[in-house]
Design a protein that fits this description.
The chain is an all-alpha fold and about 130 residues long. It has helices spanning about 5-20, 35-55, 60-75, 80-90, 95-115, 120-130. The longest helix has 25 residues, at about 35-55. It is flat, with a radius of gyration of 16 Å.
Length: about 130
């Protein structure tokens, strides 16, 4: 089967992420719902990540920035969303915002996990901001 072209894939992903309204049956704690909630959330986060990459490939940095900000809001305790945000800000020429996104990530990691950013996050920062 052929892969969708960039524009078609972007449209499909935008439509998909727009339909995600948060956890299915929020507040429900039945054993059967928790894995389903997690799976849907993971699909949503993956779709946002793919959308960001496709938008960057299409040079739609404004759209990529919006998706990256949405990704950080959806998963503020994960590093990958911050890596997307740092990269998109830097590609858009906004190194101040890229540095701020990195600083927020560093502070989050220290506060939540008593840890530094991962080597992957450090590499993105060095590649796109601290050249």
């Amino acid at each position: 089967a052929g892969r969708l072209g960039g524009g078609a894939a972007i449209h499909l992903l935008r439509t998909s992420v727009a339909q995600y309204a948060g956890d299915l049956l929020p507040g429900a704690s039945d054993d059967w719902i928790l894995p389903l909630q997690e799976r849907l959330r993971e699909h949503y986060l993956a779709a946002l990540g793919r959308l960001i990459n496709l938008l960057v490939d299409q040079h739609d940095l404004a759209g990529a920035l919006q998706a990256a900000q949405r990704l950080v809001a959806a998963a503020p305790l994960r590093e990958e969303p911050y890596r997307h945000l740092i990269r998109v800000h830097a590609l858009a020429g906004d190194t101040v915002a890229a540095r701020q996104a990195y600083a927020v990530c560093v502070a989050m990691r220290a506060r939540e996990f008593d840890a530094s950013p991962s080597p992957a996050t450090e590499a993105v920062y060095r590649q796109f901001v601290d050249e």
